[in-house]
């Protein structure tokens, strides 16, 4: 018998607060036992307002956790050589354990040149080819923040996902590809979809775990969701809310999906809420790694 279900709402804010507590405890341990203060450096090139907010929030949380936090702003017109020189200086700075170069970069600065130079041990966004390869081979210590946050939420709200059918819509380096690898490593049967995929609704209806990382407001409709499925909505889309105002919605039509899903992440307050806390976790892991200490289990 099928009836109107009401999904469990996956609370990313609460999970993020719990993760922060674990990070605080481990940071205190690292400081008192080994005299190490984790250091995070952010590099922002240009004045994209969304990127400015992201970088400010990252620095704010690093400071709140007692990390050393340094931020560098380069002009929109900065040359690739200038950006690479900054990355090189931070690679060489022993007090900096994590480097985050905020993407996207202006056209004249090639992302791959930056990622080729960035020290993989300090790559807290896990975007370098080395860290992508380590993830593929199952040996990654630094994992892309939002996918890592998604896995923590699945662990808490679903538990063992062995044998479950997972569909990841979106194949970005930042989210879709690492998310698929993590789901696979957790023994899900993973399908990846993208803009050229045929019959996306049909594929979605088979998924026990439906992950949307597309960047298209409410593209995933309620009738794409299998009853009882877990829906992870990664999208952050600003839409017109009338009266000159905007509001943020995900890639999933939340109200429609909520009545069919078993569990669902809201936007905001879902998986996005985990990202910065996971970045702090990665900085802590990077600091431990660089000191030759075991990876903290947080
Ligand atoms: P992205 O680089 O913009 O890539 C979007 C992906 O969606 C691409 O793989 C694209 O396919 C696919 N796609 C586009 N239109 C599609 C369609 N009609 N049907 C199926 N697939 C389609 O993505 P991203 O950087 O992963 O970001 C995705 C969304 O997640 C954005 O809203 C972003 O803001 C959000 N996000 C949030 C966080 C966070 O919460 N902290 C972190 C990361 C991303 P092709 O490859 O074929 O072009």
Provide a compact summary of the structure.
Helix content is 40%, strand content 17%. The protein is α/β, with parallel strands linked by helices.
Whole-number radius of gyration? 19 Å
Helix content: 25-40%
Q: What gap, in angstroms, lies between the N and C termini? A: 41 Å
Task: List the domain count as a whole number.
Answer: 2
| DSSP strand content | 15-25%
Please state the average pLDDT score: 96
Bound molecules: NADP nicotinamide-adenine-dinucleotide phosphate
List the helices and strands in order: EHEHEHEHHHEHEHEEEEHEH
What's the main sheet like? 6 strands, parallel
Low-confidence stretches: none
Q: Tell me, briefly, the overall form.
A: globular
Q: Helical segment tally?
A: 10
Structural class: alpha/beta
Number of strands: 11
CATH architecture of the largest domain: 3-Layer(aba) Sandwich
CATH level 1 name of the largest domain: Alpha Beta
As for the CATH topology of the largest domain, it is: Rossmann fold
Strand order of the largest sheet: 1-11-8-7-5-6
- The CATH superfamily of the largest domain is known as NAD(P)-binding Rossmann-like Domain
């Amino acid at each position: 018998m099928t009836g109107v279900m009401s999904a469990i709402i996956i609370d990313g804010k609460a999970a993020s607060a719990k993760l922060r507590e674990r990070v605080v405890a481990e940071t205190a341990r690292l400081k008192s036992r080994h005299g190490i203060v984790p250091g995070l450096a952010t590099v922002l090139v240009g004045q994209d307002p969304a990127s400015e907010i992201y970088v400010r929030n990252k620095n704010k949380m690093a400071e709140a956790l007692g990390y050393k936090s340094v931020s560098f702003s380069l002009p929109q017109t900065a040359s690739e050589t200038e950006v690479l020189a900054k990355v090189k200086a931070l690679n060489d700075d022993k007090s900096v354990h994590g480097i985050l170069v905020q993407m996207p970069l202006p056209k004249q600065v090639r992302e791959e040149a930056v990622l080729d130079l960035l020290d993989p041990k300090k790559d807290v966004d896990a975007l370098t080819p080395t860290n992508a390869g380590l993830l593929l081979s199952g040996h990654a210590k630094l994992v892309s923040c939002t996918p890592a946050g998604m896995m923590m939420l699945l662990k808490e709200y679903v538990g063992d996902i062995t044998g479950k059918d997972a569909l990841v819509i979106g194949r970005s380096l930042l989210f879709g590809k690492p998310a698929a690898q993590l789901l696979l490593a957790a023994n899900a049967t993973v399908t990846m979809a993208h803009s050229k995929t045929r019959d996306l609704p049909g594929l979605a209806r088979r998924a026990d775990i439906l992950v949307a990382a597309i960047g298209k407001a409410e593209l995933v409709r309620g009738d794409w969701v299998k009853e009882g499925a877990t829906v992870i909505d990664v999208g952050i889309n600003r839409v017109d809310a009338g009266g000159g105002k905007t509001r943020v919605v995900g890639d999933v039509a939340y109200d429609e999906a909520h009545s069919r899903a078993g569990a669902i992440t809201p936007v905001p307050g879902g998986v996005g809420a985990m990202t910065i806390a996971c970045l702090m976790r990665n900085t802590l892991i990077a600091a431990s790694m660089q000191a030759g200490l075991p990876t903290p289990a947080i």
